[in-house]
Amino acid sequence: MKEGMPRRPPVAQGVGSRRGRNIMLTVEQQRLELERHSKIGGIELGARRVAEVLLGCVVGVAVRWAMSKLWPLPNPKSRPS
Known about the structure:
The chain is mainly alpha-helical.
């Protein structure tokens, strides 16, 4: 590298395309893109797990209601004193 020349940031191997323009992402830009996608993936995974828990609760309540209609508990009889 010649003296006095500005140092260019390291460039990732691939060429990307954003909005029709061909660009080369620097390593730092590529890392930030991966972090953003990781965060979005984590949020999606968390939302999916919350939905599974809520669906499990709804199924549990539905089964409890159905069993109470199909197989009701006997009425309590008064005990002789």
